[in-house]
Write a structure and sequence with these properties.
- The protein has 184 residues and is mainly alpha-helical.
- The chain has a domain of 40 residues.
- Helices cover 78% and strands 0% of the residues.
- It is built from 7 helices and no strands.
- α1 runs antiparallel to α2.
Length: 184
């Protein structure tokens, strides 16, 4: 075993422990923090596999934006034990059987592909330089079309969000005629 295999083993152990804590924790905030740890360990997997771009995108999108969204939802829901639905025992048994079958399939898939992963002949797969070269040569037209699509979406969002001055004046006049707003 070389050092990269040992590192992948340690990162996999951390990922599995973090994911199990996410599912088994009673405190939702602790679950979210364990999910962040899991996302960090998955990003470290990407670095070991020489996919730095995926690692950075995973950290920015999941560990950053999605986790902030989860925390806000947890704060807004105000979960307590009284409102939690009771699950039957059969659902827990079915979930355990499904998880075991998934584990067997994953172990078989990883065992079959382990040699191909560790003996990668192409050195710059996953690097930003090779991704950029591919985007600006072979996939230039789809890349530019997606940029135009995103620009149109942003312009549409701004136009939809922008208030018309005439409508705003009518709303102001209506509020002053009725005697103010109801703050209650």
């Amino acid at each position: 075993m070389n050092s990269s295999q040992i590192l992948v083993g340690v990162l996999s152990f951390i990922s599995i422990l973090g994911a199990m804590y996410v599912v088994l924790s009673k405190n939702p905030v602790h679950s979210v923090l364990a999910l962040i740890l899991t996302f960090f360990s998955i990003s470290a997997h990407y670095v070991v596999l020489n996919a730095q771009f995926l690692s950075v995108v995973n950290l920015i999108v999941y560990a950053g934006a999605i986790m902030v969204l989860f925390l806000f939802v947890l704060m807004l829901l105000n979960l307590n034990k009284d409102s939690e639905p009771q699950k039957p025992k059969m659902a827990s048994i079915a979930a355990a059987i499904a998880a075991g079958l998934l584990l067997v399939v994953m172990v078989a898939a990883i065992k079959d592909s382990a040699d191909r992963i560790y003996h990668n002949t192409v050195e710059d797969v996953g690097l930003v330089k090779s991704l950029g070269k591919l985007l600006f040569t072979k996939y230039l037209v789809p890349f530019e079309l997606s940029g135009i699509l995103f620009l149109a979406a942003m312009v549409g969002a701004v136009l939809l969000g922008k208030r018309d001055k005439q409508n705003e004046e009518e709303m102001t006049n209506t509020v002053t005629e009725t005697g103010g707003t109801d703050n209650g």
